[in-house]
Amino acid sequence: YDIKVINQGTGPCTNVVLAVSLADGTTTAGATGPTTARGQGQQISFDAMPVLAAKGETVYRVRVQGLQAGDRKLRVQVSCDEIRTPIVKEENTRFFKD
Questions:
Q1: What is the dihedral sign for C-alpha 37, 59, 12, 88?
Q2: How many C-beta atoms lie closer than 10 Å to residue 90's C-beta?
Q3: How far, in Å, CA of 13 to CA of 8, rounded?
Q4: 2-57: per-residue pLDDT in tens?
Q5: pTM score
Q6: In sequence order, what are the beta bridge partners of 21?
Q7: Phi, psi of 37 (to 5 degrees)
Q8: In three state form, how does the secondary structure of the chain look?
């Protein structure tokens, strides 16, 4: 998954944090981004990005491996100091058995 975070506001966002939740039946196969990724179980979190400029963007990459065939959801949550409620997005993926 390529996760693009865009600051659509007119001012900078500070302490931008991205967290990813993997569905049962999947596992992480790697994660990269502008900050260090840390994984524990079905969760991946990235260290805070100090500043994302107004109209700026950055990309996080998360590789996921399906352990079982079927539909699985990836849930992404982005937060920063300037927003009170985190932004949440889900992506559905269908995995097939080899």
A1: negative
A2: 11
A3: 10
A4: 999 999 999 999 999 999 999 999 999 999 999 999 998 899 999 999 999 999 99
A5: 0.91
A6: 43, 75
A7: -95, 145
A8: CEEEEECCCCCCEEEEEEEEECCCCEEEEEEECCCCEEEECCEEEECCEEEECCCCEEEEEEEEEECCCEEEEEEEEEECCCCCCCEEEEEEEEECCC
Return the exposure string of 74-86: e unless at least 16 CB atoms fall within 10 Å of the residue's CB, then b.
bebebbbeeeeee
Between CA 55 and CA 57 the distance in angstroms is: 7
- The structure tokens 């659509």 sit at 8
Which is nearest to 48 in space by CA: 73, 23, 13? 13
Pairing of strands 70-79, 87-95: antiparallel
Contact at 8 Å (CB) between 56 and 8? no
